[in-house]
Write a structure and sequence with these properties.
Layout (H helix, E strand, L loop, with lengths): L1 H14 L6 H43 L9 E2 L4 E2 L2 H30 L5 H13 L5 H27 L14 H25 L3 H9 L4 H12 L1 H17 L2 H6 L17 H8 L5 H37 L1
Antiparallel strand pairs: 1-2
Family: Belongs to the binding-protein-dependent transport system permease family. CysTW subfamily.
Organism: Pseudovibrio japonicus
Keywords: Cell inner membrane, Cell membrane, Membrane, Phosphate transport, Transmembrane, Transmembrane helix, Transport
């Protein structure tokens, strides 16, 4: 009996907490400083990039000021530069692409994660969707030129003929324009939205779903009233990332959007984005135009930061509602 008591005391001593060793303290501090260093490097790189772009854009900032954002002219010969048309094209095309690609992305995520397909088949479909993200941008642009634009021309002609009085269809599609760019862009952001949304739906506790079904909810009611609200912060994160991808997309839009400085509501009129402006004008830019292009790059960076900040704020509100 005494022997068993002594052995029990020995086992308790083996698992009793002890003071951390010098090696434990040193390794803990090392990991902490590595984490701080990595975060500091990221912050430093971000500030350094902003500083370099702002330094290169300073001549244009002094010369054009705020009228740079309300002028639609980009005339190198007269040294008159403005990016209102590019800002409009960037936001308009990105919002339309997010409306299409975001809706389909969330729908695909629900379809693949809520038992509509067998598990093995859903994994195959998920792999196919994620493979869309691996296709180079220039390939999407070529596909848009040779497939999307010819397919849209008869539709655009019919809409313009019968509904041309509506601003959305006020012009007909004769070549590159906003509609083919939006369609291709929506396909490009779809894998991002679908993959992250599916992960968000997968993190919804199984007990929550079982409780909804146990109360007599149908699958549709469970998805709309339980699963979507519970995973709303993750879905919002997916939409924000998809919107950021759309804002910064360059090559495919430069090939498809038409690159014309104009502000138009028509889906079939040519337009221009900030990214396509930089891609098409930067290689042959002189010193004055280069400063204006860097000013435009600074504006694109500002728009992206503001969008991400708004998205982070909405995500924080969603998490607070989930906690309540």
């Amino acid at each position: 009996m005494m022997k068993s008591v002594m052995s029990g005391a020995k086992n308790d001593d083996e698992f009793s907490p002890s003071a951390p060793s010098f090696y434990d303290v040193l390794s803990d501090r090392g990991v902490r400083w590595i984490a701080f260093g990595a975060g500091g490097i990221v912050v430093f790189l971000g500030l350094y990039i902003i500083f370099e772009i702002a330094s290169a854009a300073s001549p244009a900032i002094k010369e054009y000021g705020l009228r740079f954002f309300v002028d639609t002219r980009w005339d190198v010969s007269r040294q008159e530069f403005g990016i209102l048309a590019e800002i409009w094209g960037t936001l308009y095309s990105s919002l339309l692409a997010l409306l299409i690609g975001g809706s389909f992305g969330v729908g695909i995520a629900l379809f693949l994660s809520q038992g509509y397909l067998p598990n093995r088949l859903s994994q195959i479909f998920r792999l196919v969707v994620e493979m869309l993200a691996a296709i180079p941008s220039v390939v999407y642009g070529l596909w848009g030129i040779y497939v999307v634009i010819p397919a849209l021309r008869p539709v655009a002609a019919w809409l313009h003929e019968y509904f041309g009085f509506i601003p959305l269809f006020s012009t007909s599609l004769s070549g590159p324009g906003l509609a083919p760019a939006v369609i291709v862009l929506s396909i490009m952001i779809l894998p991002t939205v679908a993959a992250i949304s599916q992960d968000a739906f997968a993190q919804v506790p199984q007990k929550v779903k079982e409780a909804a079904y146990g109360m007599g909810a149908t699958r549709k009611q469970a998805i709309l009233k339980v699963i979507l609200p519970t995973a709303s912060s993750g879905v919002m994160g997916a939409i924000v990332l998809g919107f950021g991808r759309a804002l910064g997309e360059t090559m495919a839009l430069a090939m498809l959007i038409g690159n014309v400085n104009q502000v138009s509501l028509s889906l079939f009129a040519p337009a221009k984005t900030l990214a396509s402006l930089l891609a098409s004008n930067f290689p042959e830019a002189g010193q004055v135009e280069l400063a204006a292009l860097m000013y435009a790059a600074l504006a694109l960076l500002f728009i992206t930061v503001v969008v991400n900040a708004i998205g982070a704020y909405i995500m924080s509100l969603s998490k607070k509602q989930e906690a309540i």
